[in-house]
Amino acid sequence: MSKSNVFENDFLKLIFTAVPIANLADNAATAPLTNLFIAAHTADPGEAGTQTTSETTYTGYTRATVARTAGAWAVTNNTVNPASTISWPACTGGTSQTITFFSIGVALTGASKILYSGTVTPGIVVSTGVTPQLSMATAITED
Predict the structure, then answer these.
(1) What number is the average pLDDT over the span 83-109?
(2) Fewest CB atoms within 10 Å of the CB: 68, 102, 119, 143?
(3) Domain boundaries, the chain
(4) Cα gap 138→131, rounded to integer Å
(5) Which of 105, 100, 94, 102 lies closest to 127 in space, CA to CA?
(6) For position 136, what pLDDT does the model report?
(7) How confident is the model at residue 109 (pLDDT cuts 50, 70, 90)?
(8) What does the alpha-carbon distance between residue 18 and residue 4 come to, in Å, rounded to a whole number?
């Protein structure tokens, strides 16, 4: 089953920039989510996974927090990109790991649900002193 291109774009705007879909969905909950949380993974968390599935564990790591605003996410032509580079904290120790996937979820910690996930290409080799980043070219497409 397919969605129209207009609705795909509207859906991405609802999730990433908190823009309501008229007469269908709004952001007027008692405590609407104001941020999305980007996790780094060393393997694909899969559709059945959570944000803790294969989440990186380097020393100093925490999920990146990105606001649900048009200033933080660019939505055009059924695709969303970060408006600026997303950075995780620098690695301060531990063994080398390679980040190969990212996920976008609803909590800073814990096994929160994954809204979207994707590959990190090329993978980011993380060792002491490295600050892993997702570029603005990272795209999520609504099909």
Answers:
(1) 95
(2) 143
(3) 33-67+79-141
(4) 17
(5) 94
(6) 80
(7) very high
(8) 20
